[in-house]
Amino acid sequence: MQSGAKKVIFPLILLIIIGGLIFLQRSSSKVHYNEDNVLGNTAGNLYNGGLFCEYGNTIYFSNPLDDGALYSMDIDCTNVHKISSDRVASLNADEHYIYYSRRNYLKQDPMESIFIFRNTGLYRMKHNGSGLAMLFDGGNGISCLAGNTIFYQHYDTQTATQFYSVGIDAKNNQRINTDAILPASVYNNTLYYAGVLEDHYLHAYNLKTKNDYIISHEACYLPIAMPGGVYYISLLDGHSLCRVGYDGSAPVKLVDEFISTFNLTEDEHYLFYQIDGGEDNRLVRLDLSTGFTTTIIDGDYKQLHLTSQYLFFRDFADTTTYAYNLMNDVLSTFHPPVLDEE
User: Fold this and answer.
1) I need a labelling partner for 323 at 20 to 30 A (CA). Which of 49, 160, 193, 218 fits?
2) Using CA of residue 112, residue 114, residue 118, residue 121, what is the dihedral sign?
């Protein structure tokens, strides 16, 4: 009897083990989907490179001192960890994943990039760096997570830059428009963008109905849709910074200066912008509630990224990254540590 029982028990245990392994494999490969209103980053951050992305109590960022590798830290810039050696841009995040554009062809250490099979593409991974999955393996520019879709600039040598989308499960990679638009600003399931090839008008593209219509015939650049309206740089009005209603009405000029880039806080309290084109170039903060302006620093700066507590930006010489504390107005240089992957 004991011998017969052993013959029965052993196959049963083996089946349980195999079943458990299959379950674990399927669980690890299961894709977690989002609600339709989930967005991966702010439009202002994505226009400025998507090098910083805040989700929950964590900031994911491209470490400028470690060849652009993917790091994380708490929202007060403490508790820094290295997630991946990939050089990253267009960072997006949701409850389960980080999404990014791999830019390893830009690595300063050419020997390191030689041993990476793919130097570009769109990727998804878990917050701890595990479960890396490729969504698209070609050249790309700005990419934006909205719901369960990544909208991105697709590039190849035959068609140049065009507007595409792909699911977070790597399915349904498809072209939406042949224009080289910058897909960054989504508000209420609608993408707001400026035309590039055929016109520079302010467009609205409904992500559900696929209906595309023009809000304003003014030539604009870097539109950011917020509850108070759409902010943009006016190309025909000296690169001034303006805002217009969603029906194209009530246009307002907010800054009558030559603006190269800008960003604004999610509560629309502060607007940050870089003034260029003259001898008085500077980075400025505008209080939209009072109209008062404050110069943060004189000179030429770029890559303005906002989190709940900081404005991060970089000088045009690519030598220094700065962190401006929104709570106490203290400006300091940003020196994250260089770490090994955990």
Assistant:
1) 193
2) positive
Tokens of 10: 């052993």
- Helix (H) or strand (E) holding 187, with range, is strand 185-187
Contacts of 14 (CB under 8 A, 6+ apart): none
Return the percent helix, strand and coil in the chain, to nearest 5: 10, 45, 40
Nearest CA-CA partner of 342 in 44, 11, 80: 80
Distance CA 312, CA 52 (A): 8
Domain 32-333 top-level CATH class: mainly beta
Looking at per-residue pLDDT, the higher value among 241 and 11 belongs to 241
- Strands in 270-275's sheet, in edge-to-edge order, are 259-264, 270-275, 282-287, 293-298
Decide: residue 141, CB within 10 A, 0-12 exposed, 13-18 middle, 19+ buried.
middle
When pLDDT is cut at 50, 70 and 90, the band that residue 133 belongs to is very high
Predicted model pTM: 0.91
Where exactly are the structural domains of the chain? 32-333
pLDDT bucket at 341, cuts 50 / 70 / 90: confident
Over residues 80-101, the mean pLDDT reads 98
pLDDT, position 6:
53
In angstroms, rounded to a whole number, what is the distance separating the alpha carbons of residues 98 and 151? 15
Provide the H-helix boundaries in the chain.
Answer: 2-29, 43-47, 110-114
Distance CA(225)–CA(203), nearest Å, equals 11
For residues 193 and 151, what is the distance between their CA atoms, to the nearest angstrom?
Answer: 12
**C-alpha span between 219 and 236 (Å, rounded):** 6
Residue 199 contacts residue 188 (beta carbons within 8 Å): no
Sign of the C-alpha dihedral, residues 280, 284, 286, 292? negative
Reply yes or no on whether the pLDDT at 13 is more than 90: no
Matching residue, tokens 């302010």 = 202
Of the pLDDT bands very low, low, confident and very high (cuts 50, 70, 90), residue 22 is: very low
Q: Which helix (H) or strand (E) holds 177?
A: strand 174-177
